Amino acid sequence: DRLGKQCLMIFGETRGSILKAMLLWDRTELAEETKDLYQKSGMSHLLAISGLHISILGMSLYRFLRKLGASYWLSGIPAMLVIFLYGVLTGMGTSTERAVVMCLLAVLADLLGRSYDMLTALAASALLILLQQPLQARNASFLLSFAAVLGIGLMYPALSGLCPVRKKTGQALLASLSVQLLTFPLIQYFYYEIPVYAVLLNLCVIPLMGLLLPTGILSLTVSFLSLRAS
Description:
The protein has helices at residues 2-24, 32-40, 51-67, 72-89, 94-111, 118-132, 140-162, 168-191, 198-223.
């Protein structure tokens, strides 16, 4: 609650409500027009705590501690703790729980000297969620979250084999297209619309999230010391 209030104080009501949704999964201040805009443009996933948020926060901490010279376990345990607690803080929604389980398995695999397999981690997270609530299998957020990751894990390698590209821009475009190909049918089924320009929009916006999320978290942290500095 305090973090949400700090968001509104720092960034104002409009921008603060968006950042509050992105960082804390609290949409109470978010205008309906803004929600509709993100949904129709195919970017509503940015307003949910997903693998992008978890990886930026937890995996970045893990890599940072490793670069400082800390051992695997001294780097991994704090990172895993931060990943889990951030999931709890933001309500541990379906997409959040999936991302938390997958990131925890990624760090754990590194600690144990084992290889990390995305599809195995995805299956483990699905099993854990469905054991708690089997009817999640019919939930839109569950299906969209898992379809997006399957797009990266299954569709992207297939498209890369058909259209091999070396430039990062081309690879990013293929990755975005892979996600959209699997999520488009679900979006049409649940929301009766298809965001035709979502591929290009996500190609532009997702890289910027890598800058927005860390700076947003840093601003919130600094705001407890000084609002002006934040």
